[in-house]
Amino acid sequence: MEREVILTRDPIDEVALSRARRRSTTAGAVITFLGVVRDLEAGGRIQGLDYTAHEAMARHQFGLLMESLAARWPVESVRLVHRLGPVLVGEASLWVEVVAPHRGEAFAACQWLIDEMKRVVPIWKRAIA
Length: 129
Description:
By secondary structure, the chain is α+β, with helices and mostly antiparallel strands. It has a single domain, classed as Aldehyde Oxidoreductase, domain 3 (Alpha-Beta Complex). 33% of the residues lie in helices and 40% in strands. It has helices spanning 14-19, 55-72, 103-120, and strands at 2-8, 29-36, 40-41, 44-45, 48-53, 77-83, 85-88, 92-100, 123-128.
């Protein structure tokens, strides 16, 4: 399984990322997910979120997640981009692409990856009031 994880302080350009997709003749599904910062956090209005990470450990945890994902589903590739630093309301903080032979596998793998990422990867957010 091809995999790519990017932690960046730059804005996520989902159009450019989609154009750079690895083409496959065996994959029938390409699932993309875009996580966008909303204006409410913990019941209060915010201007954005400030993301911090233990980057070395985050990369390690993402590697473990990718190994586990590859053992569960016949996914051809996974790409993930997570913003660090301040991300304003309306901006993307997370972009994920999963390429698999069938949609069910792609959807399941994408949802599992995001859920597990939130559970085990050391990336934290703080509201910007």
